[in-house]
Write a structure and sequence with these properties.
The protein contains one helix and eight strands. The chain is α+β, with helices and mostly antiparallel strands. The longest helix is centred in the first third of the chain and has 29 residues.
């Protein structure tokens, strides 16, 4: 009886080890990042600012593909679009993924003079069924004016 108990205990331990290490190697393969967005968004925006938001897209794709990168501007409090207010005239840009090359896009935006509150920037990139996204919440402050 003790022999059977020890045998089943060892088999159970063996199966647990196989399942644990088998699933760990599978999840490591699933988490391989093939496309990645980098953006140096400003910490604060002021009324009247005109900026070009630089976005870099790095990828590990083996083939050349056409992809898209988009910029969405939302009111952080209400989640409504403010693309028109901020003159986001190029919200969608195309790029070609060339192996070992980084694509850089610039999104020109203008902060309206009468906007108050925070905005949410959402940047999305997709190429060859791979996707990545970034989101930032940036406060908009009134520009101080010099009075004579």
């Amino acid at each position: 009886m003790g022999f059977l108990f020890a045998y089943f205990y060892r088999m159970r331990l063996f199966l647990l080890v196989v399942l644990f290490f088998g699933s760990a190697s599978l999840s490591a393969q699933q988490k391989k990042i093939l496309i990645q967005i980098h953006c140096n968004a400003p910490k604060i925006l002021k009324n009247g600012d005109k900026i070009e938001l630089p976005v870099s897209i790095k990828h590990q794709l083996a083939t050349e593909n056409t992809g898209t990168v988009t910029l969405e501007l939302l009111n952080a409090a209400t989640n409504t679009s403010v693309d028109g207010w901020f003159l986001n005239v190029f919200p969608l840009q195309y790029f070609t993924s060339i192996q070992h090359k980084t694509f850089t896009a610039e999104f020109p935006i203008t902060v309206p003079m009468d906007y108050t509150g925070k905005i949410k920037l959402i940047i999305k990139a997709s190429c060859a069924n791979q996707k990545d996204s970034l989101a930032f919440i940036i406060p908009v402050q009134a520009k101080k004016t010099v009075q004579e």
